[in-house]
Write a structure and sequence with these properties.
single chain, mainly alpha, Cytochrome Bc1 Complex, Chain D, domain 2, 5 helices, binds heme C
């Protein structure tokens, strides 16, 4: 019975697309980035169209929009990286907690949300 419950709990995790399932984890940068985003950013930043801001602004189309959602500056990868590494008044800093490679993955994922 317990095993059945465990199976039921794990089932939704298997719902990834067929293409994603075939590739080994290190060949799925967007899936890895999405997971990193869920682990580190989603509590404060929605990343879906039309979702209201949480503690921080919605990061949907961050790179494609003309201006950054809160500070209203030209969006750039450099700014995103600095923000992730050093945080802000309210946002935590991730330097030492996220590797360069994982920051790359996060940036790729955010770029894909357009
Ligand atoms: C505890 C909540 C919290 C978490 C977790 C968090 N942020 Fe933030 N973030 C904020 C807040 C609040 C602001 C605006 C004020 C500030 O800069 O502190 C912000 C600002 C930003 C901005 C600048 C937006 C603009 O318009 O200039 C970016 C980019 C950003 N966050 C990205 C991220 C990413 C990527 C992650 C995950 C690695 C993350 N944040 C995690 C709260 C958070």
């Amino acid at each position: 019975m317990r095993r059945l419950l465990l199976l039921a709990a794990l089932l939704p995790l298997c719902a990834a697309s067929a293409a994603e399932r075939k590739a080994p984890p290190w060949e799925k940068p967007l899936a890895a980035g999405r997971q990193l985003y869920r682990d580190n950013c989603i509590v404060c930043h929605a990343i879906d169209p039309g979702k209201p801001a949480k503690l921080g602004p919605n990061l949907f189309r961050f790179f494609q929009n003309e201006l950054t959602p809160l500070t209203k500056a030209a969006p750039s990868e450099a700014y995103m990286r600095i923000k992730i590494q050093f945080g802000g008044d309210l946002m935590p800093a991730y330097v030492g907690r996220l590797s360069e490679r994982n920051i790359d993955r996060l940036v790729e994922y955010i770029r894909s949300r357009k």
